[in-house]
Amino acid sequence: MTKRILFAAAAALALPLPALAQHDAAALRDAALKDDVAWEITEGLTTEVGQRLAATEAEARARAWAVKKLTALGFQNVHIETYKMPVWVRGEEKAEVVGASAQKLTIAALGNSGSTGAKGIEAEVVYFPTLADLQAAPAGSLTGKIAFVSHAMTPTQDGSQYGYYGGVRRMGPALAAGKGAAAVLIRSIGTDHHRNPHTGVTNWPTGTKPIAAAALSVPDAEQLERLLKRGPVRLKLLVTPQFKGEAESGNVIADVPGTDPNAGIILIGGHLDSWDLGTGAIDDASGVGITTAAAKRIMDAGHPRRTIRVVWFGAEEVGGFGGEAYAKAHASERHVLAMESDFGADRVWKFEANLPDSAKPVADRVATALAPLGISRGRGVASGGTDVGPVLATGVGGIDLDQSGLRYFDYHHTPDDTLDKVDPEQLRQNVAAWTAMLAVAANAPEDIGPVQPSAGH
Protein backbone atom coordinates (compact mmCIF):
# COMPACT_ATOMS: atom_id res chain seq x y z
CA MET A 1 0.00 0.00 0.00
CA THR A 2 1.58 3.32 -1.00
CA LYS A 3 1.43 6.65 0.77
CA ARG A 4 0.03 8.19 -2.42
CA ILE A 5 -3.04 5.96 -2.28
CA LEU A 6 -3.69 6.71 1.40
CA PHE A 7 -3.39 10.44 0.81
CA ALA A 8 -5.86 10.08 -2.05
CA ALA A 9 -8.26 8.27 0.24
CA ALA A 10 -8.03 11.01 2.84
CA ALA A 11 -8.81 13.58 0.18
CA ALA A 12 -11.68 11.49 -1.23
CA LEU A 13 -10.14 11.66 -4.70
CA ALA A 14 -10.23 7.94 -5.45
CA LEU A 15 -12.63 5.12 -4.60
CA PRO A 16 -15.30 5.64 -1.88
CA LEU A 17 -13.50 5.55 1.44
CA PRO A 18 -15.17 2.46 2.94
CA ALA A 19 -14.17 0.28 -0.02
CA LEU A 20 -10.67 1.70 -0.17
CA ALA A 21 -10.20 1.39 3.58
CA GLN A 22 -11.15 -2.28 3.35
CA HIS A 23 -8.55 -2.82 0.63
CA ASP A 24 -5.95 -1.07 2.76
CA ALA A 25 -6.85 -3.20 5.76
CA ALA A 26 -6.40 -6.46 3.83
CA ALA A 27 -3.04 -5.45 2.37
CA LEU A 28 -1.69 -4.16 5.64
CA ARG A 29 -3.05 -7.19 7.51
CA ASP A 30 -1.29 -9.65 5.24
CA ALA A 31 2.01 -7.74 5.40
CA ALA A 32 1.80 -7.72 9.22
CA LEU A 33 1.97 -11.52 9.30
CA LYS A 34 5.72 -11.03 8.75
CA ASP A 35 6.10 -8.36 11.44
CA ASP A 36 9.19 -8.33 13.65
CA VAL A 37 8.63 -5.10 15.57
CA ALA A 38 6.39 -6.64 18.25
CA TRP A 39 8.99 -9.32 18.94
CA GLU A 40 11.79 -6.74 19.04
CA ILE A 41 9.89 -4.72 21.64
CA THR A 42 8.95 -7.76 23.72
CA GLU A 43 12.45 -9.23 23.59
CA GLY A 44 14.17 -5.91 24.20
CA LEU A 45 12.03 -4.83 27.14
CA THR A 46 12.22 -8.17 28.93
CA THR A 47 15.95 -8.59 28.26
CA GLU A 48 17.32 -5.09 28.74
CA VAL A 49 15.05 -4.06 31.62
CA GLY A 50 13.60 -7.31 33.01
CA GLN A 51 11.00 -7.17 35.77
CA ARG A 52 9.32 -3.78 36.17
CA LEU A 53 7.52 -3.46 39.50
CA ALA A 54 5.46 -0.27 39.64
CA ALA A 55 7.02 2.89 41.09
CA THR A 56 10.46 1.32 41.44
CA GLU A 57 13.76 2.13 39.78
CA ALA A 58 13.18 -0.71 37.32
CA GLU A 59 9.92 0.81 36.09
CA ALA A 60 11.68 4.17 35.67
CA ARG A 61 14.34 2.47 33.53
CA ALA A 62 11.54 0.91 31.49
CA ARG A 63 10.02 4.34 30.82
CA ALA A 64 13.37 5.64 29.60
CA TRP A 65 13.74 2.55 27.41
CA ALA A 66 10.26 3.09 26.00
CA VAL A 67 10.91 6.73 25.07
CA LYS A 68 14.09 5.76 23.24
CA LYS A 69 12.36 2.91 21.41
CA LEU A 70 9.22 4.81 20.42
CA THR A 71 11.27 7.75 19.18
CA ALA A 72 13.50 5.47 17.11
CA LEU A 73 10.39 3.88 15.57
CA GLY A 74 9.28 7.29 14.29
CA PHE A 75 6.35 8.17 16.56
CA GLN A 76 5.53 11.81 17.28
CA ASN A 77 5.04 13.65 20.59
CA VAL A 78 6.82 10.91 22.55
CA HIS A 79 6.86 11.86 26.22
CA ILE A 80 6.37 10.67 29.79
CA GLU A 81 3.54 11.81 32.07
CA THR A 82 4.32 11.07 35.72
CA TYR A 83 2.19 10.76 38.83
CA LYS A 84 2.71 9.75 42.45
CA MET A 85 1.46 6.49 43.94
CA PRO A 86 2.01 4.21 46.96
CA VAL A 87 4.99 1.87 46.80
CA TRP A 88 4.99 -1.76 47.96
CA VAL A 89 8.06 -4.02 47.70
CA ARG A 90 8.53 -7.72 48.32
CA GLY A 91 10.56 -9.09 51.25
CA GLU A 92 11.32 -12.58 52.57
CA GLU A 93 8.76 -15.33 51.93
CA LYS A 94 8.86 -18.65 53.78
CA ALA A 95 6.23 -21.15 54.84
CA GLU A 96 6.91 -24.38 56.70
CA VAL A 97 4.71 -27.06 58.19
CA VAL A 98 5.87 -27.92 61.71
CA GLY A 99 5.43 -31.14 63.64
CA ALA A 100 5.40 -34.76 62.47
CA SER A 101 4.92 -33.83 58.80
CA ALA A 102 7.44 -30.96 58.79
CA GLN A 103 8.09 -29.65 55.28
CA LYS A 104 8.56 -26.47 53.32
CA LEU A 105 5.86 -24.92 51.15
CA THR A 106 6.35 -22.56 48.21
CA ILE A 107 4.66 -19.17 48.50
CA ALA A 108 4.69 -15.65 47.07
CA ALA A 109 3.38 -12.61 48.92
CA LEU A 110 0.39 -10.89 47.34
CA GLY A 111 0.81 -7.28 46.32
CA ASN A 112 -0.11 -4.99 49.25
CA SER A 113 0.42 -7.84 51.72
CA GLY A 114 1.18 -6.88 55.26
CA SER A 115 4.11 -8.31 57.19
CA THR A 116 4.48 -11.01 59.80
CA GLY A 117 7.41 -9.07 61.23
CA ALA A 118 11.03 -10.18 61.03
CA LYS A 119 10.50 -13.07 63.44
CA GLY A 120 7.52 -14.50 61.57
CA ILE A 121 4.58 -16.23 63.19
CA GLU A 122 3.58 -19.78 64.06
CA ALA A 123 -0.12 -20.65 64.14
CA GLU A 124 -2.79 -23.22 63.42
CA VAL A 125 -4.23 -23.34 59.88
CA VAL A 126 -7.99 -23.06 59.36
CA TYR A 127 -9.16 -24.37 55.99
CA PHE A 128 -11.91 -22.86 53.82
CA PRO A 129 -12.70 -24.67 50.55
CA THR A 130 -14.17 -21.50 48.96
CA LEU A 131 -14.42 -17.76 49.49
CA ALA A 132 -18.07 -18.25 50.45
CA ASP A 133 -17.00 -20.52 53.31
CA LEU A 134 -14.66 -17.80 54.59
CA GLN A 135 -17.44 -15.24 54.31
CA ALA A 136 -19.66 -17.46 56.44
CA ALA A 137 -17.11 -17.85 59.24
CA PRO A 138 -18.21 -16.20 62.52
CA ALA A 139 -16.66 -12.91 63.58
CA GLY A 140 -13.56 -13.45 65.71
CA SER A 141 -13.34 -17.14 64.83
CA LEU A 142 -9.90 -16.76 63.23
CA THR A 143 -8.19 -14.83 65.99
CA GLY A 144 -4.51 -15.73 66.09
CA LYS A 145 -4.85 -18.29 63.27
CA ILE A 146 -3.78 -18.61 59.63
CA ALA A 147 -6.69 -18.80 57.20
CA PHE A 148 -6.21 -20.95 54.09
CA VAL A 149 -8.68 -20.48 51.23
CA SER A 150 -8.70 -22.77 48.22
CA HIS A 151 -10.67 -23.43 45.10
CA ALA A 152 -9.54 -24.64 41.70
CA MET A 153 -9.61 -22.45 38.60
CA THR A 154 -9.63 -24.28 35.25
CA PRO A 155 -8.51 -23.05 31.81
CA THR A 156 -11.02 -21.54 29.39
CA GLN A 157 -10.51 -19.90 26.03
CA ASP A 158 -12.03 -16.63 27.18
CA GLY A 159 -10.39 -16.63 30.62
CA SER A 160 -13.79 -16.03 32.19
CA GLN A 161 -13.08 -17.94 35.41
CA TYR A 162 -10.52 -15.35 36.48
CA GLY A 163 -13.20 -12.88 37.51
CA TYR A 164 -14.87 -15.32 39.91
CA TYR A 165 -11.89 -17.20 41.29
CA GLY A 166 -9.80 -14.03 41.51
CA GLY A 167 -12.10 -12.86 44.28
CA VAL A 168 -10.17 -15.06 46.71
CA ARG A 169 -7.06 -12.99 46.07
CA ARG A 170 -8.72 -9.60 45.83
CA MET A 171 -11.09 -9.89 48.82
CA GLY A 172 -10.04 -12.97 50.81
CA PRO A 173 -7.22 -11.44 52.85
CA ALA A 174 -9.34 -8.50 54.01
CA LEU A 175 -12.20 -10.84 54.95
CA ALA A 176 -9.82 -13.02 56.97
CA ALA A 177 -8.32 -9.98 58.67
CA GLY A 178 -11.79 -8.80 59.62
CA LYS A 179 -12.43 -12.12 61.37
CA GLY A 180 -9.21 -11.88 63.38
CA ALA A 181 -6.75 -13.91 61.29
CA ALA A 182 -3.05 -13.37 61.90
CA ALA A 183 -2.28 -14.21 58.26
CA VAL A 184 -3.90 -15.71 55.18
CA LEU A 185 -2.80 -18.15 52.48
CA ILE A 186 -4.66 -18.77 49.22
CA ARG A 187 -4.38 -21.33 46.48
CA SER A 188 -2.76 -19.52 43.55
CA ILE A 189 -5.20 -18.12 41.00
CA GLY A 190 -3.80 -20.16 38.14
CA THR A 191 -4.38 -23.21 35.95
CA ASP A 192 -0.94 -24.84 36.06
CA HIS A 193 0.54 -27.51 38.29
CA HIS A 194 4.06 -26.11 38.36
CA ARG A 195 5.57 -25.26 41.70
CA ASN A 196 5.34 -21.55 40.89
CA PRO A 197 3.09 -19.39 43.05
CA HIS A 198 0.99 -16.69 41.36
CA THR A 199 1.18 -13.25 42.92
CA GLY A 200 -1.28 -10.40 42.30
CA VAL A 201 -2.70 -7.46 44.17
CA THR A 202 -5.04 -7.68 47.13
CA ASN A 203 -7.14 -4.85 48.53
CA TRP A 204 -7.65 -3.56 52.04
CA PRO A 205 -10.76 -1.50 52.79
CA THR A 206 -10.23 1.74 54.69
CA GLY A 207 -9.68 0.96 58.34
CA THR A 208 -8.45 -2.62 57.77
CA LYS A 209 -4.86 -3.17 58.86
CA PRO A 210 -3.02 -5.33 56.28
CA ILE A 211 -1.99 -8.77 57.49
CA ALA A 212 0.48 -11.13 55.86
CA ALA A 213 -1.13 -12.55 52.71
CA ALA A 214 0.49 -15.00 50.32
CA ALA A 215 -0.34 -17.45 47.54
CA LEU A 216 0.71 -21.09 47.62
CA SER A 217 1.70 -22.74 44.37
CA VAL A 218 -1.07 -25.07 43.19
CA PRO A 219 0.83 -28.27 44.12
CA ASP A 220 1.61 -26.86 47.56
CA ALA A 221 -2.02 -25.84 48.10
CA GLU A 222 -3.12 -29.38 47.24
CA GLN A 223 -0.45 -30.75 49.57
CA LEU A 224 -1.72 -28.58 52.41
CA GLU A 225 -5.28 -29.76 51.74
CA ARG A 226 -4.16 -33.39 52.02
CA LEU A 227 -2.34 -32.67 55.28
CA LEU A 228 -5.42 -30.96 56.74
CA LYS A 229 -7.54 -34.03 55.95
CA ARG A 230 -5.20 -35.99 58.23
CA GLY A 231 -5.54 -33.63 61.16
CA PRO A 232 -4.59 -30.19 62.49
CA VAL A 233 -1.68 -28.37 60.81
CA ARG A 234 0.56 -25.69 62.25
CA LEU A 235 2.65 -23.43 60.07
CA LYS A 236 5.62 -21.17 60.50
CA LEU A 237 5.16 -18.20 58.21
CA LEU A 238 7.58 -15.41 57.35
CA VAL A 239 6.37 -12.67 54.99
CA THR A 240 8.15 -9.31 55.22
CA PRO A 241 7.15 -6.89 52.44
CA GLN A 242 7.28 -3.16 53.04
CA PHE A 243 5.13 -0.16 52.23
CA LYS A 244 7.54 2.65 51.33
CA GLY A 245 5.35 5.72 51.10
CA GLU A 246 4.89 7.38 47.72
CA ALA A 247 7.10 7.37 44.63
CA GLU A 248 6.83 8.17 40.95
CA SER A 249 5.29 6.10 38.19
CA GLY A 250 4.24 7.26 34.76
CA ASN A 251 2.73 6.65 31.34
CA VAL A 252 4.73 6.81 28.12
CA ILE A 253 2.74 8.39 25.28
CA ALA A 254 3.36 8.45 21.52
CA ASP A 255 1.20 9.63 18.63
CA VAL A 256 0.53 8.85 15.01
CA PRO A 257 -1.03 12.24 14.09
CA GLY A 258 -4.22 12.16 12.04
CA THR A 259 -5.17 14.42 9.16
CA ASP A 260 -8.56 15.41 10.61
CA PRO A 261 -8.32 17.03 14.06
CA ASN A 262 -12.10 16.79 14.46
CA ALA A 263 -12.24 13.03 13.88
CA GLY A 264 -11.00 12.18 17.37
CA ILE A 265 -8.29 10.06 18.98
CA ILE A 266 -8.02 6.27 18.95
CA LEU A 267 -6.34 5.21 22.19
CA ILE A 268 -4.45 1.89 22.21
CA GLY A 269 -1.73 0.27 24.28
CA GLY A 270 -0.83 -2.03 27.13
CA HIS A 271 0.94 -1.74 30.45
CA LEU A 272 4.65 -1.18 30.93
CA ASP A 273 4.94 -2.40 34.52
CA SER A 274 5.04 -6.05 35.56
CA TRP A 275 5.16 -8.12 38.68
CA ASP A 276 8.61 -8.79 40.10
CA LEU A 277 8.71 -12.59 39.88
CA GLY A 278 9.26 -12.98 36.12
CA THR A 279 10.15 -10.57 33.32
CA GLY A 280 6.59 -9.69 32.32
CA ALA A 281 6.76 -11.10 28.79
CA ILE A 282 3.13 -12.12 28.38
CA ASP A 283 1.97 -9.60 30.99
CA ASP A 284 2.42 -7.22 29.34
CA ALA A 285 5.52 -6.60 27.21
CA SER A 286 3.81 -8.48 24.39
CA GLY A 287 0.76 -6.22 24.67
CA VAL A 288 2.74 -3.01 24.24
CA GLY A 289 4.67 -4.73 21.46
CA ILE A 290 1.53 -5.80 19.58
CA THR A 291 -0.24 -2.45 19.73
CA THR A 292 2.89 -0.42 18.98
CA ALA A 293 3.82 -2.59 15.99
CA ALA A 294 0.31 -2.23 14.55
CA ALA A 295 0.32 1.55 14.99
CA LYS A 296 3.72 1.76 13.30
CA ARG A 297 2.39 -0.15 10.30
CA ILE A 298 -0.46 2.34 9.90
CA MET A 299 2.02 5.21 10.33
CA ASP A 300 4.44 3.83 7.75
CA ALA A 301 1.62 3.37 5.23
CA GLY A 302 0.59 7.03 5.36
CA HIS A 303 -1.41 9.51 7.42
CA PRO A 304 -4.60 8.09 8.96
CA ARG A 305 -7.67 10.28 9.29
CA ARG A 306 -7.76 9.89 13.09
CA THR A 307 -4.85 10.28 15.46
CA ILE A 308 -3.71 6.94 16.88
CA ARG A 309 -2.28 7.34 20.37
CA VAL A 310 -0.14 4.57 21.81
CA VAL A 311 0.20 4.54 25.60
CA TRP A 312 2.48 2.29 27.61
CA PHE A 313 0.63 2.58 30.91
CA GLY A 314 2.43 2.46 34.23
CA ALA A 315 1.34 0.79 37.46
CA GLU A 316 -1.49 -1.35 36.08
CA GLU A 317 -0.72 -4.44 38.15
CA VAL A 318 -0.97 -2.76 41.52
CA GLY A 319 -4.21 -0.87 40.97
CA GLY A 320 -4.60 0.70 37.53
CA PHE A 321 -2.96 3.97 38.50
CA GLY A 322 -1.76 4.66 34.95
CA GLY A 323 -5.19 4.37 33.38
CA GLU A 324 -6.74 6.67 35.97
CA ALA A 325 -3.95 9.23 35.55
CA TYR A 326 -4.26 9.22 31.77
CA ALA A 327 -8.04 9.69 31.82
CA LYS A 328 -7.71 12.62 34.21
CA ALA A 329 -4.89 14.31 32.29
CA HIS A 330 -6.59 13.98 28.90
CA ALA A 331 -10.23 14.51 29.86
CA SER A 332 -10.51 17.53 27.58
CA GLU A 333 -9.54 15.60 24.44
CA ARG A 334 -12.02 13.81 22.22
CA HIS A 335 -11.39 10.08 22.27
CA VAL A 336 -13.57 7.98 19.97
CA LEU A 337 -12.16 4.50 20.63
CA ALA A 338 -10.10 3.02 23.49
CA MET A 339 -8.57 -0.46 23.35
CA GLU A 340 -5.79 -2.44 24.99
CA SER A 341 -3.87 -5.70 24.65
CA ASP A 342 -3.33 -7.31 28.06
CA PHE A 343 -4.01 -11.02 27.83
CA GLY A 344 -0.74 -12.50 26.65
CA ALA A 345 0.47 -13.22 23.15
CA ASP A 346 -1.57 -16.19 21.95
CA ARG A 347 -3.72 -15.83 18.86
CA VAL A 348 -6.78 -13.62 18.63
CA TRP A 349 -9.85 -15.80 18.09
CA LYS A 350 -12.78 -13.41 18.55
CA PHE A 351 -13.61 -9.72 18.50
CA GLU A 352 -16.42 -7.70 20.03
CA ALA A 353 -17.37 -4.06 19.58
CA ASN A 354 -19.15 -1.34 21.50
CA LEU A 355 -19.97 1.41 19.01
CA PRO A 356 -22.82 3.86 18.53
CA ASP A 357 -25.46 2.94 15.96
CA SER A 358 -24.00 5.48 13.52
CA ALA A 359 -20.71 3.56 13.47
CA LYS A 360 -22.05 0.00 13.17
CA PRO A 361 -20.68 -0.24 9.60
CA VAL A 362 -17.19 0.16 11.08
CA ALA A 363 -17.62 -3.05 13.06
CA ASP A 364 -18.94 -4.80 9.96
CA ARG A 365 -15.83 -3.84 7.99
CA VAL A 366 -13.61 -4.91 10.88
CA ALA A 367 -15.33 -8.32 10.82
CA THR A 368 -14.57 -8.69 7.12
CA ALA A 369 -10.94 -7.68 7.62
CA LEU A 370 -10.38 -10.08 10.53
CA ALA A 371 -12.12 -13.18 9.13
CA PRO A 372 -9.11 -14.39 7.06
CA LEU A 373 -7.11 -14.54 10.31
CA GLY A 374 -9.59 -17.02 11.80
CA ILE A 375 -11.21 -14.39 14.00
CA SER A 376 -14.97 -14.53 14.44
CA ARG A 377 -17.39 -11.91 15.70
CA GLY A 378 -18.61 -12.47 19.24
CA ARG A 379 -22.09 -11.82 20.56
CA GLY A 380 -21.03 -9.72 23.52
CA VAL A 381 -20.09 -6.08 23.96
CA ALA A 382 -16.51 -4.82 24.14
CA SER A 383 -15.53 -3.95 27.70
CA GLY A 384 -11.87 -3.01 27.42
CA GLY A 385 -9.58 -3.53 30.41
CA THR A 386 -8.04 -1.88 33.45
CA ASP A 387 -5.96 0.72 31.61
CA VAL A 388 -8.57 2.01 29.16
CA GLY A 389 -11.49 1.44 31.51
CA PRO A 390 -11.53 5.01 32.89
CA VAL A 391 -11.73 6.43 29.35
CA LEU A 392 -14.40 3.93 28.32
CA ALA A 393 -16.42 4.93 31.39
CA THR A 394 -16.89 8.40 29.89
CA GLY A 395 -18.87 6.93 26.98
CA VAL A 396 -16.04 6.20 24.57
CA GLY A 397 -16.51 3.19 22.28
CA GLY A 398 -14.22 0.20 22.03
CA ILE A 399 -13.28 -2.95 20.15
CA ASP A 400 -11.91 -6.00 21.99
CA LEU A 401 -9.56 -8.35 20.16
CA ASP A 402 -9.83 -11.41 22.37
CA GLN A 403 -6.83 -13.71 22.66
CA SER A 404 -6.93 -17.36 23.63
CA GLY A 405 -6.64 -17.80 27.38
CA LEU A 406 -6.01 -21.55 27.39
CA ARG A 407 -2.34 -21.10 28.40
CA TYR A 408 -2.38 -17.66 29.91
CA PHE A 409 -3.14 -18.54 33.52
CA ASP A 410 -0.42 -21.19 33.57
CA TYR A 411 2.13 -18.36 33.64
CA HIS A 412 0.20 -15.28 34.78
CA HIS A 413 1.92 -13.45 37.69
CA THR A 414 4.52 -16.21 38.16
CA PRO A 415 8.31 -16.56 37.80
CA ASP A 416 7.48 -18.36 34.53
CA ASP A 417 6.26 -15.19 32.78
CA THR A 418 9.33 -15.09 30.55
CA LEU A 419 10.11 -14.56 26.88
CA ASP A 420 10.15 -18.25 25.95
CA LYS A 421 6.39 -18.37 26.58
CA VAL A 422 5.77 -16.02 23.63
CA ASP A 423 5.13 -17.78 20.30
CA PRO A 424 6.45 -15.48 17.52
CA GLU A 425 3.90 -16.68 14.97
CA GLN A 426 0.94 -16.14 17.28
CA LEU A 427 2.41 -12.74 18.17
CA ARG A 428 2.43 -11.83 14.45
CA GLN A 429 -1.19 -12.91 14.11
CA ASN A 430 -2.03 -10.43 16.88
CA VAL A 431 -0.19 -7.65 15.08
CA ALA A 432 -2.05 -8.49 11.85
CA ALA A 433 -5.39 -8.34 13.67
CA TRP A 434 -4.63 -5.02 15.33
CA THR A 435 -3.28 -3.59 12.07
CA ALA A 436 -6.41 -4.56 10.13
CA MET A 437 -8.70 -3.17 12.81
CA LEU A 438 -6.79 0.12 13.01
CA ALA A 439 -6.70 0.49 9.23
CA VAL A 440 -10.49 0.34 9.20
CA ALA A 441 -11.19 2.39 12.33
CA ALA A 442 -8.60 5.11 11.83
CA ASN A 443 -9.82 5.89 8.30
CA ALA A 444 -13.55 5.26 8.69
CA PRO A 445 -15.70 8.11 7.28
CA GLU A 446 -18.42 7.56 9.89
CA ASP A 447 -18.52 9.70 13.00
CA ILE A 448 -17.58 7.50 15.94
CA GLY A 449 -19.37 9.31 18.68
CA PRO A 450 -20.15 8.37 22.28
CA VAL A 451 -21.92 5.14 23.11
CA GLN A 452 -25.01 5.02 25.29
CA PRO A 453 -24.43 3.98 28.90
CA SER A 454 -26.70 0.98 28.36
CA ALA A 455 -24.36 -0.31 25.65
CA GLY A 456 -21.87 -1.65 28.14
CA HIS A 457 -20.61 1.00 30.53
Q: What this model shows, in words?
A:
With 457 residues, this protein is α/β, with parallel strands linked by helices. It has helices spanning 3-10, 17-32, 37-48, 57-72, 131-136, 161-165, 167-178, 218-230, 281-301, 321-329, 360-370, 389-392, 408-411, 424-443; strands at residues 76-89, 93-98, 103-105, 107-109, 121-128, 146-149, 183-187, 212-216, 234-239, 242-256, 265-271, 307-313, 335-338, 348-354, 376-377, 398-403. It is 34% helix and 22% strand. An eight-stranded mixed sheet has the order 3-2-9-5-6-7-8-4, sandwiched between helices. Helix 11 (360-370) packs antiparallel against helix 14 (424-443). The relative contact order is 0.18. The model is unreliable at 1-21 (pLDDT under 50).
Name the shape in a single word: elongated
Q: What gap, in angstroms, lies between the N and C termini?
A: 37 Å
Order of helices and strands: HHHHEEEEEHEHHEEHEEEHEHEEHEHEHH
Poorly predicted runs are: 1-21
Q: Classify the beta-strand content into a percent band.
A: 15-25%
Strand order of the largest sheet: 3-2-9-5-6-7-8-4
Secondary structure category: alpha/beta
Supply the number of helical segments.
Answer: 14
The counted number of beta strands is: 16
pLDDT averaged over residues: 94
Helix content: 25-40%
Q: What is the CA-atom radius of gyration, in angstroms?
A: 23 Å
Tell me about the biggest sheet? Answer: 8 strands, mixed
Oligomer: single chain
